[in-house]
Specification:
With 179 residues, the chain is an all-alpha fold. The chain contains 9 helices and no strands. The protein is 60% helix and 0% strand. The chain starts with 8 loop residues before the first helix and ends in a 9-residue tail after the last helix. Helix 1 crosses helix 2 and helix 5 packs antiparallel against helix 7.
Length: 179
Amino acid sequence: MWSPPPEHPLRRLFAGLTEQTFQTTLGLADPPLTDYLSGMLSRFIHIDAIFRLRDAAGRRLEEVAEMMIEGEAMPPQGRTRREVHRHIGDFTLFWTGVYPEALRRLRSVMTKDHFIDYCEQGKRAYYIASTFEKDPYREEAPVLRRLSDEFELCAYGLSQVRREWERRRLGPALPPSAD
């Protein structure tokens, strides 16, 4: 999976937007949190990163319900279980915060995700991933716990990041948001 280095222009763009938005809109100055979120946005520009989880047969997992089943089938210890739950958290936060209009399709009546609460499952997944606290996960565990505890706030913050990048893309004709 491609993850742009911190000096990559796209990563720097997302880092600046995320830091500015979280500080000015939410009054939240938390560099490890904003770094994590800008890294997630940078990774998720590729559809292959959004849908990177596969089942045992190699089929791409596109529903949170399928991802949860796969994650629960893994041994309780180990990197793979942590990574599956971290990805579920990222996946649900991304769609809930950045593209909430896609949730209607993702959670349509014809999918297993129709019965899934993305916020609840995202919080749960980040919590499980945060319990892996030994090296090499020691630094990231508190960020994942915070994402679990403040999932809705972070989703709102990401919606404001999207609003800001759209405002900048459209140019000075669009006034800054008032909410």
